[in-house]
Amino acid sequence: MRFLRECLGVPDERIRVNCNLFADHLARQEQIEQFWLDTLDLSRSRMCKSVVNVYSKYSQKKRRGLLPYGTTRVTVHSVRVVQHIYGAIQEYGGFDRPEWLG
């Protein structure tokens, strides 16, 4: 988030977050979402609907205790940022893919 804000100048209004949770997180879903919002220093308005992965009947529910806050995905809605990142990858990698830059 610091990279997005300080290096790329991305305002919070362009950022969206969603969580990937597990079935045993369901009772704490709001608390876990708030953990990610606090960690990323974002307001509740930046949170999209979370995805809850239910156990399959073959899983034997072995996942318990791993990833206590699930995972989160940060999305930036900005063509400028995407083109900047692709340009940097090309520069560091020493190759040229004009189709990446639109």
Rg, Å, rounded: 18 Å
Q: Give the percentage of residues in beta strands.
A: 15-25%
- Tally of separate helices: 3
Overall 3D shape: extended
Instruction: Encode the helix/strand succession as letters.
Output: HEHEEH
Total individual domains: 1
Give the helix level as a range of percent. 25-40%
Number of beta-strand segments: 3
Question: Main β-sheet: number of strands, strand sense, barrel status?
Answer: 3 strands, mixed
Low-confidence stretches: none
Structural class: alpha+beta
Average per-residue pLDDT, rounded, comes to: 88
Q: Reading side by side through the largest sheet, how are the strands ordered?
A: 2-1-3
Spatial gap, N to C terminus: 25 Å
Tell me about this structure.
It is a single chain. With 102 residues, the chain is an alpha+beta fold. The protein has one domain. Helix content is 32%, strand content 17%. It has three helices and three strands. The protein has helices at residues 2-7, 29-40, 79-93, and strands at 15-22, 51-53, 71-76. The protein has a three-stranded mixed beta sheet, covered by helices on one side.
Please outline what is shown here.
This protein has 102 residues and is an alpha+beta fold. It has helices at 2-7, 29-40, 79-93, and strands at residues 15-22, 51-53, 71-76.
Keywords, separated by commas or semicolons:
about 100 residues, alpha+beta, 3-stranded mixed beta sheet, about 30% helix, about 15% strand
